[in-house]
Amino acid sequence: MTSPLGKDLLGLERLTSEQISLILDTAEPLREISERAIKKVPTLRGATVVNLFFEASTRTRISFEFAEKRMSADTVNVAAAGSSISKGETLVDTARNLEAMKIDMVVIRHGSSGAAHFLAERIQSNVINAGDGTHEHPTQGLLDLLTLRQRWGSLQGRRVCICGDVLHSRVARSNIWGLKKLGAEVAVCGPRSLLPNAVGEMGVTVFDRIEQAIEWADALNVLRLQLERMESGYIPSLREYNRVFGVTRERLERAPKDILIMHPGPMNRGVEIDSDVADGPHSVILDQVTNGVAVRMAVLYLLAGNSPKLADAAKGTV
Amino acid sequence: MTRVERRRGGRDTLLKGGRIVDPSRNMNDIGDVLVRDGKIESVGGKIAGPDGADVIDCKGLVVSPGFVDVHCHLREPGREDVETILTGARAAAAGGFTAVCAMPNTDPVTDNQAAVGFVLKQGRAANAARVYPIGAISIGQKGEQLAEFGEMVGAGAVAVSDDGKPVVSSQLMRTALEYARAFGIPVADHCEDPTLAAGGAMNEGLVSARLGLRGIPSEAEEIMAIRDILLARRTGGHVHLCHMSTKGSVELIRWGKDRGIKVTAEACPHHLSLTEDAVEGYNTHAKMNPPLRTMADVEAVRAAVKDGTIDVIATDHAPHHNDEKARAFADAPNGIVGLETALAVNITWLVKPGVLSITDLIDRMACAPARIFSLPGGTLAKGAAADITVFDPTAEWKVDAAGFKTKGRNTPYAGMMLTGRVHATLVDGQVVHRA
């Protein structure tokens, strides 16, 4: 059975706006399953899903695992440490071995851009990209879109600014493609040393100063600043980063309107975002986490080849 | 120069009825070429074949001076699993090359006279294309201490280079250019500012931004190109800039040549035919260093090959094991094989669209390389060694990497229909390849 998304979910760049809307529409009713006392439907019963994490992850891995379990899939978690991967097994061999075990889906997180493509080309199973290097993190992009859509109804004409280390951020890329496809205006803001040189050609506005971004935006998606960036010389210090680019209450108070605050986590409180902003009334950061499970359930469900019309029906059965 | 001794005194060979194109003598006529005792006996017009001569019918084919590649990697010693001098020399012959220059980034590095002698010896034993060793600039290619140029040249090295790595120290580059003058050899540099290129996997631009791959900016190449040109001006040495890939580099070379600075340069078939778009889908067969650039760069490099700003086309033939290319993009090694596709790629992307004439192409692949590296060959003059390439400029063929003579299968052209096919390659009058 061919799914409406194709075999794999590798990124949002190649999805159509219809496909993205379909995932979000499918996620809406699935969100309710997680609100129940018995959080389980039989939709993916008998399906085997491998969560293949070559990079450490807490939030994304747990979110996928909940999504899989709440849909009754059989799941296996493979972390790089302690597996044959750490013994030097190549990605090719890992792919072949997984295939030989007759699995249905692989969720892969890998430090190299293109790793999910690489796997998808070599195995029959559905591949879901849970973050590949600095390329894409499509389910994070989708949960961000769902969060905004719930607040606004539609993203058409809304202004979203992605703040911080866009250069190294797979979240940023997935957000840029997803937001633009749903009709939002997208900007990026950060030190130029942390923006791709060609970012302007990606169809986004570039702000050099966070104050300009705040004046312009309806929502800020504040990226995590990896501490390694300072060590490798992209910025002089975290202290200065916070002073110049930090999203602080003082800066937000000067905004002409209320701005939704998002963050893909984990946060460096006091660096890219201050605690009173992260925990403040306009923060939707925990909504993002809740929506993460629903969006991942929707992706699993659609890739398994199920009709989107069944999503409503599926939640009825236990 | 150590001469490669081959079987001599065999039968004469008559190349009959081909279009003889020899830019070294402004020749472009239909006629015959007679080869005797490994040398060119006579050229042009109808030649009556002596009794017992081997006759190769060249009707509809081009007969040209043998191609000379000033830049290839034959991997021996060290990585005989991916190429040997034997397989590389045979691949060269199959691609119409009668001579190739082997870069010294082997294991161990070709940085002394014994190592140079080994490459020559293996090349001779291959009995295919001639193999000329290039010695390292620095011992171990570590960029610290100058290797013994004099000893290496005495043993048969034709140039020095730390290719694969840039010469980071400007002082070392200056010394190399000065010291090389005594031996009349070019210093070939792989232009790359390692601090700008660090960790880069492809050209920096929109495609790298989209794919989330670390980019290598054009400036990483251009900064070193102009440094080398300025040092050549200061020292009077001959700098040869390897695999030039950007519009900016072309402008800098032109600037240097306009001022009479002794700078020569090469471009590779892949930089003349493909752009960074080939990386799309994380295709590791499109991963090389310098990386594939933009269309504007490709067009500038093509124009530079046409007007002579870039003197020669060289392959940068770089075989890798399939297992090494079958990795995530950032982890795969740089480079592609090129010896057996160079002619066809050049005809398909340069001659057919009218960028270069066949005469210009033969100059850039045969005459100019021999001239700038002071190698024998590059001419069909009477008495010259009979290093000859016969090719069909219109034959179309589909690239099948499995059929290559090289051990490498890493080509971005696999499955493509290309135009131009080598028919026969003669070295010292001996047929070393025949289609």
Topology of helices and strands:
The complex is a heterodimer of chains A (318) and B (435).
Chain A: H1 17-31, E1 48-53, H2 59-70, E2 74-79, H3 91-100, E3 105-110, H4 115-122, E4 126-132, H5 138-152, E5 159-163, H6 170-181, E6 185-189, E7 205-207, H7 210-216, E8 219-222, H8 228-231, H9 238-245, H10 249-253, E9 260-262, H11 275-278, H12 285-303, H13 310-314
Parallel strand pairs in A: 1-2, 1-3, 3-4, 5-6, 5-8, 6-7, 8-9
Chain B: E1 13-22, E2 27-36, E3 39-43, E4 54-57, E5 62-65, E6 67-72, H1 85-94, E7 97-102, H2 113-126, E8 130-135, H3 149-155, E9 159-161, H4 170-180, E10 187-189, H5 194-197, E11 202-203, H6 206-211, E12 215-216, H7 218-235, E13 239-241, H8 247-258, E14 263-267, H9 269-273, H10 295-307, E15 312-313, H11 322-325, H12 342-351, H13 358-372, E16 388-398, E17 417-427, E18 430-434
Helix pairs in contact in B: 1-2, 2-3, 4-7, 7-8
How would you portray this structure in words?
- The complex is a heterodimer of chains A (318) and B (435).
- In chain A, helix 2 links the parallel strand 1 and strand 2 (74-79).
- The mean pLDDT of chain A is 92.
- Chain A is built from 13 helices and 9 strands.
- Chain A is α/β, with parallel strands linked by helices and 318 residues long.
- Chain A has helices at 17-31, 59-70, 91-100, 115-122, 138-152, 170-181, 210-216, 228-231, 238-245, 249-253, 275-278, 285-303, 310-314; strands at residues 48-53, 74-79, 105-110, 126-132, 159-163, 185-189, 205-207, 219-222, 260-262.
- In chain A, helix 2 (59-70) crosses helix 12 (285-303) and helix 5 (138-152) crosses helix 6 (170-181).
- Chain A starts with 16 loop residues before the first helix and ends with a helix.
- Chain B has 435 residues and is α/β, with parallel strands linked by helices.
- Chain B folds into 2 domains: 13-62 and 385-434, Urease, subunit C, domain 1 (Roll), CATH 2.30.40; 66-372, Metal-dependent hydrolases (TIM Barrel, Alpha-Beta Barrel), CATH 3.20.20.140.
- Helix content of chain B is 30%, strand content 23%.
- Chain B is built from 13 helices and 18 strands.
- Chain B has helices spanning 85-94, 113-126, 149-155, 170-180, 194-197, 206-211, 218-235, 247-258, 269-273, 295-307, 322-325, 342-351, 358-372; strands at residues 13-22, 27-36, 39-43, 54-57, 62-65, 67-72, 97-102, 130-135, 159-161, 187-189, 202-203, 215-216, 239-241, 263-267, 312-313, 388-398, 417-427, 430-434.
- In chain B, the strands form 3 sheets. In chain B, strands 1, 2, 3, 4, 5, 16, 17 and 18 form an 8-stranded mixed sheet that branches.
- In chain B, strand 7 (97-102), helix 2 and strand 8 (130-135) form a beta-alpha-beta unit.
- Chain B is globular and about 65 Å long.
- Classes of the chains: A alpha/beta (318), B alpha/beta (435).
- Chains A and B meet through helix 4 of A and helix 6 of B.
